[in-house]
Design brief:
heterodimer, A: about 300 residues, mainly alpha, 11 helices, B: about 675 residues, two-stranded antiparallel ribbon, 5 strands
Chain lengths: ~300, ~675
């Protein structure tokens, strides 16, 4: 429950923090921290326009997307405190629940019969297919490192005793950061602020969504960001008492958001054709982490 | 045993009477007669199977038959499990097929033949699961292959159907050759045709004979064994066959290859020489590669049924990975690994039978409604056939392994096993298991791409070609068997522990120490599955809740309908929408180096183009092209160089005869013959 509440709180500020970082770095004041959430709130109260091509799939997809990400959030523990969903192998469930939402968003984009949205759907399916192995490798490495198979047990028994293991933790956090950027279609992979449909990934999928559905999708995107931030934070909060771990959690999430803002300020979007290579590199980083763990756990047959 | 013989005699008489009835009955009730026969046989065998599955294996011997000697019939938990799958799929498939075949009611003789073969197909598959005399087994196996081949070529007046059938026939017989070799090997070493005699083989002979059986069965299952890519009949035969036949072949017949592999693992003494480990690793590797290759080809198919057929190769790969993991577990004396592996393999066998038959049946309905399976000419079918579309979506979600459906449960078990293995294996083994996990993840990701394409392009968006008629043949009654399958798919996903409990006996055959209580550290298997069950229920409840809230919030608001946003373009939207080919373009670019993609493209050069731009891609199977087609071309060329011998001149032929006789005489004289 702790993690659920904290993630929901972070969700309110996350995008605001990213925007504020970008504004400050480009020498502007920028909107308030709560502006993105206010925008979403406005969307949620609006009426909607639906495409005449679309079917029920288009209408249920945002809801299922939100529910799937929320289910994934329930899997995330808070250090030693397990999430509502916790069992050996829960991270497999986590990944597959997220993918379920993605499936619905992809087919919903196809549902409009638009020339643009199919493009976004194709890219989304393609990039997530390439990004998924990295997550499973990094979880495999953590499982090997701790000898545990559930999020809670892994994070609770994660302790960085040597400089090797600290390096591993940082590397893992970095991979989660890059994964979050791919999953949420942020800068090096996708430019959410672009105004050209041909260069979008996630934005172009939701061109036809409006009103409540659009608000829900935008909120889910925020939630997903906070979710990956929470995973990264879990790498560090360990089983500290709450008065240390809660500030630590918020700090890691803030660093996560600021890092994303900073990267977006200085890096240009890749050419679309280069993305697969970039995404696949992450898997190889993750494999390096895995071999590294194999080395430091020093197991021999 | 008198009762057994009389039982077989009764079954034969019922079959004969039934066949005669089918021939003379009017077209309308032919299918009904066949179905009731399948129902009778199904009930009888299911009853026996249920007893065996709950712990009372049966063994009967037909003693001293003239040709085969003793024919032992054994129904243990493993056979029982497959018998139940066969009966369920054949019955639902038959029900669906009865409606499907209505279009062909003019072809009376053809239909009679079809339904009689349908019964033979059912009986031969049951026989394969039960007979344990090598020779009799081969006969049953052959009957199964032949009857399925004849079922495939129902539309034999179409040349491409016939070609697919012949291709299937030939490839199947490579598998039969290997199985025959295995049986011969078994007989020469033990002097018995009884499979159980394999237990007495001397250690040196175990591996070669096992390999014969193993490869033979693997070919039937459609596993792509690298240098022997003889699973190419699958993607050719399935589009050619009627939908219910494709569904049943993919759903259960190829699973009998899996049955054969599992049976041989049980029978052969593999404990020595680290055989478990060797075979396990080999199978894990081959299955992972086959799975990836299968789904990689599935994605770029333009024909819906072909896509499904390739995806069968992928799923057989997942099942194979489960068996491989189980064997590795046995080799490492790790009960957790072994049970997770075999459990996931068996459960995925059942799961794949359910969702793949469902998908093929829905493809059949699509074909009936549109008379086409080419994705590029389909589209927007959700509005025309909403029930079929929803069922297809259900099958697609299940085959991608998403919770809350059954595919997730078996893949989850496999993942847990593989991750467990990483924690307990040696470093090298850990790395290999990690690669296996990566293959499984990649398969999952590719399946997402393939099935979003299939569902999105065929059922969503705008129609690419107008429907020929409004009568789509979609009624609740016609789709009833599909709904039944759908209920099973969902209930396995929601209540996995109940179904896994049923599997405890078959798994215990492989892993004697198997119990549900000693599975994972700190948590039992059933406990974990209970958690999974709660979690997926939570997922459904949450989705339902969110959609309900959405309904209450949005229903009072203004909702309007307008055309899809087209960036100002108001022309023909159907032509502008994303096609199947463009949906996977990025993937195709990436995979081109591994796959064989031929492109024909007419470039537009002039400023005012006169001709229509034309673009076409053809997808070939690189393994088939290089390892089967190319050698065939060479062989043909080699033999063509002897063509001058057959020149139609009688005197030359007489000359050949004389030369032959002289050679024989000479060799005899030289004492060489």
């Amino acid at each position: 429950m702790t993690s659920l509440i904290l993630i929901l709180v972070v969700t309110l500020f996350f995008h605001g923090l990213v925007f504020r970082t970008k504004s400050l770095l480009s020498g502007r004041q920028g909107p308030g921290l709560l502006q993105p959430i206010k925008d979403i709130w406005r969307q949620l109260r609006k009426g909607a326009v639906f495409s005449d091509t679309s079917t029920i799939i288009f209408r249920i997809a945002p809801g299922i997307y939100f529910a799937s990400v929320l289910t994934a959030v329930l899997c995330v523990p808070f250090g030693g405190i397990p999430g509502l969903i916790s069992f050996p192998g829960d991270f497999v469930f986590f990944a597959y629940a997220l993918a379920l939402g993605k499936f619905f968003m992809i087919v919903a984009a196809m549902d409009t019969g638009s020339s643009f949205e199919g493009m976004g759907a194709s890219r989304e399916a393609h990039f997530s297919m390439l990004a998924e192995p990295a997550f499973f490798t990094i979880m495999g490495s953590l499982a090997l490192f701790t000898g545990q198979l559930s999020f809670r047990d892994i994070f609770a028994s994660l302790h960085f005793s040597s400089s090797f293991s600290i390096a591993m933790g940082l590397l893992a956090a970095m991979i989660l950061l890059i994964l979050a950027m791919i999953e949420n279609s942020r800068m090096p992979v996708d430019d959410p602020r672009t105004h050209l449909e041909l260069t979008m990934v996630h934005e172009v999928m939701i061109l036809d969504n409006s009103g409540f559905d659009l608000g829900l999708i935008l909120f889910t995107t925020n939630l997903k960001f906070a979710l990956f931030g929470a995973l990264a934070a879990n790498l560090f909060i360990n089983t500290f008492p709450l008065f240390i771990s809660i500030p630590l959690f918020l700090a890691v999430e803030a660093i996560f958001a600021i890092a994303i803002g900073t990267v977006e300020s200085f890096v240009a979007r890749f050419r679309m054709g280069r993305n697969p290579q970039f995404i696949f590199t992450i898997t190889s980083y993750a494999l390096v982490v895995f071999l590294f763990v194999l080395f430091i756990t020093g197991r021999s047959s | 045993m008198i009762s057994l013989l009389s039982l077989i005699a009764a079954a034969t008489i019922v079959f004969l009477i039934g066949s005669i009835c089918i021939v003379i009955a009017p077209v309308k009730i032919k299918a009904g007669i066949a179905l009731s026969l399948v129902f009778i046989y199904g009930c009888g065998s299911s009853l026996l199977a249920y007893h065996a599955l709950t712990g009372a294996p049966l063994e009967m011997v037909i003693a001293d038959t003239t040709l085969f000697g003793d024919i032992p019939l054994r129904i243990d938990a493993l056979s029982a499990f497959f018998i139940l799958i066969i009966n369920f799929t054949l019955f639902t498939g038959g029900l669906y097929g009865a409606n499907y075949m209505r279009t062909y009611r003019e072809q009376k003789a053809n239909l009679s033949f079809h339904w009689i073969l349908f019964i033979i197909f059912h009986l031969s598959m049951l026989a394969v699961c039960v007979i344990q005399n090598g020779l009799a087994f081969l006969v049953a196996w052959e009957i199964m292959s032949l009857s399925s081949m004849l079922l495939v070529i129902f539309e034999h007046y179409k040349p491409e159907t016939l070609r697919a059938g012949v291709n299937y026939l030939i490839q199947m017989h490579v598998s039969v050759v290997l199985l025959t070799l295995g049986v011969i090997g078994l007989f020469t070493h033990t002097g018995s045709f009884d499979f159980a005699a394999a237990g007495q083989l001397n250690p040196a002979a175990v591996l070669p004979i096992f390999a014969c059986f193993f490869v033979g069965f693997a070919l039937k299952a459609g596993l792509n064994i690298g240098i022997l890519p003889l699973n190419t009949w699958l993607p050719q035969a399935h589009p050619a066959a009627p939908a219910h036949i494709s569904g049943m072949m993919s759903g259960v017949m190829i699973k009998l290859g899996i049955y054969g592999i599992l049976r041989m693992i049980l029978l052969f003494p593999l404990t020595e020489n680290q055989n478990y480990l060797r075979i396990g690793w080999a199978l894990l590797g081959v299955a992972a590669a086959s799975g990836i290759y299968g789904i990689m080809l599935a994605i770029i198919q333009h024909n819906l049924k072909k896509l499904l057929a390739y995806s069968s190769i992928e799923n057989i790969g997942i099942i194979g990975m489960g068996i491989g993991l189980g064997l590795i577990g046995l080799g490492m004396d790790n009960v957790m690994l072994a049970s997770a592996g075999f459990l996931s393999a068996l459960l995925h066998t059942l799961n794949h039978a359910l969702f793949k038959s469902l998908l093929f049946y829905t493809a059949g309905t699509v074909y009936h409604a549109t008379h086409s399976l080419k994705m590029e000419s389909l589209g927007g079918l959700f509005k025309k056939i909403p029930q079929t579309a929803s069922l297809f979506l259900l099958g697609a979600l299940a085959i991608c392994g998403f919770p809350p459906f059954n595919g997730f449960i078996s893949e989850f078990l496999l993942y847990s096993g593989l991750y467990q293995g990483i924690l307990h294996a040696s470093p090298v083994a850990s790395v290999l298991l990690m690669l296996a996990i990566l293959s499984l993840v990649l398969i999952g990701g590719l399946a997402l791409l393939g099935f979003t394409k299939a569902f999105g392009v065929v059922f969503l968006g705008k129609e690419r070609q107008p429907l020929s008629s409004d009568n789509t043949g979609e009624t609740f009654g016609n789709l009833l068997p599909l709904y039944v399958i759908g209920v099973f798919i969902l209930s396995i996903g929601l209540f996995p522990s109940a179904f896994v409990r049923l599997l405890s006996q078959p798994v215990a055959l492989f892993v004697p120490q198997f119990s549900f209580t000693a599975f994972t550290s700190g948590s039992t298997l059933l406990g974990t599955l209970q958690h999974v069950s709660w979690s997926v229920t939570g997922l459904i409840a949450m989705s339902g809740g969110v959609l309900l809230i959405r309904h209450f919030i949005t229903s009072p608001r203004l909702q309007s309908v307008s055309p899809t946003w087209g960036c100002g373009y108001v022309g023909d939207a159907a032509k502008m929408q994303y096609t199947a080919n463009s949906f996977v373009r990025m993937y195709r670019k990436l995979a081109e180096s591994v796959l064989l993609v031929q492109r024909t493209k007419v470039e537009i050069k002039e400023v005012f183009p006169q001709k229509i731009m034309h673009y076409e891609t053809h997808i070939g199977d690189i393994l088939e092209t290089n390892l089967i087609d190319q050698p065939l071309v060479w062989t043909k060329r080699l033999f063509a160089s002897f063509h001058f011998l057959q020149n139609g001149k009688i005197q030359n032929y007489i000359l050949y005869g004389i030369v032959f006789m002289l050679t024989v005489a000479l060799l005899t004289w030289l004492k060489l013959l």
